[in-house]
Amino acid sequence: MKFDGKRKARLVAGGHRTVDPGEDTYSGVVAPEAIQLGMFAAIHNSLKVVAADIGNAYLCANTNEKLYTIFGDDYGELSGKVLVINKGLYGLRSSGARFHEHLSDILRKTGFIPSKADSDLWFKDCGTHYEYLARYVDDILVFSKGPMKIIECLKVMYPLQGVGLPEYYLGCDFKVQRGTGEAQLQ
Fold first, then answer.
1. Number of domains present in the structure of the chain
2. Which one of 81, 104, 116, 185 has the lowest number of neighbouring Cβ atoms within 10 Å?
3. Strand ranges, E, within 37-170
């Protein structure tokens, strides 16, 4: 169940029943304090804030795990055939880490670099100002003078959902200050 009461179902692989891949399975997430710093920078540099959710994020990255399944009787003529899994699936041990690497590669290609204070708060020097992007697994916040340009770049690689002014992120409500259209963290 999501914070707004909506229900969501997801097919989850049984990664807990697989052999430990012996590699880093960690996927970092931005700290709430880094979000507050991003909001502070946005307010003081007249940056706009846009949120987006990357749909089916793990499927965007390949897995390093050696996995397969055998089709059951429900699959008719495919019954008994072996299906090799090469994409990250929710529930696999390393899917989070592989997606984290994939998104990191995309952000680097678009000119962003991770901050030293929080490696999931990325920034880009635009000459007259800095732009920021925060990520929490597949949820992103863009702090920019032109955030939709960054969103459009990401849409080339990922299906994005819920693009717009953030209403809720990491347990915090965002409110729009009347007359300015700027987001305020509550």
1. 1
2. 116
3. 48-54, 62-70, 82-87, 113-114, 121-125, 130-136, 139-144, 160-164, 168-169
